[in-house]
Amino acid sequence: MANKAYKFSRHAENLIANLRGVPENYSPIVRETRDMGVIFDKIIERYKIGVESLEDRIRENWAEIVGPANANHCSPVRIERESVLIIAVSNPIIRQELQFNQSILLKNLRSIQDGRRIRSVVFRSG
């Protein structure tokens, strides 16, 4: 005999819950159960999990973008509004040097895949 999944009314479910000693369901929303595989696929697609992003490529090529001498004193933080790269700089002297060489930095960013999306750079203490 195959197991069949029976659907009971909420009232019947609450009676069974009372008999079993578990809390009743008072939720006003009744939702159908969904397969977790489908939900995970949607999450992976929406948030692009496992797909290499521009941020990943910037981190991989960071020493080439800012130069090996500056790479240890600053780091990319995030990309805002899809075109502004936020960089954390630990030293005010390095920050000033990077600001003077901002055009070179943007040119180096454009050399990586999708790097043309970055139109400006903002330096933050950090």
How would you describe the overall organization of this protein?
With 126 residues, the protein is an alpha+beta fold. Helices cover 44% and strands 15% of the residues. The model has no long low-confidence stretch (mean pLDDT 89). The longest helix has 11 residues, at 10-20. It folds into 2 domains: 10-46, no CATH class; 54-125, GMP Synthetase, Chain A, domain 3 (2-Layer Sandwich), CATH 3.30.300. The protein is elongated, with a radius of gyration of 26 Å.
In brief, what are we looking at here?
The chain has 126 residues and is α+β, with helices and mostly antiparallel strands. The protein has seven helices and three strands.
Beta strand count: 3
Per the CATH scheme, the topology name of the largest domain is: GMP Synthetase, Chain A, domain 3
How many DSSP helices? 7
- Look at the structure and give the mean pLDDT: 89
Q: Could you list the spans in which at least 5 consecutive residues all have pLDDT below 50?
A: none
End-to-end C-alpha gap:
66 Å
| Classification by helices and strands | alpha+beta
Series of H and E elements: HHHHHEEHHE
The order of strands across the largest sheet is 1-2-3
**Count of domains:** 2
Q: β content, as a range?
A: 15-25%
**CATH class label of the largest domain:** Alpha Beta
How much helicity do the residues have?
Answer: 40-55%
C-alpha-based Rg, rounded: 26 Å
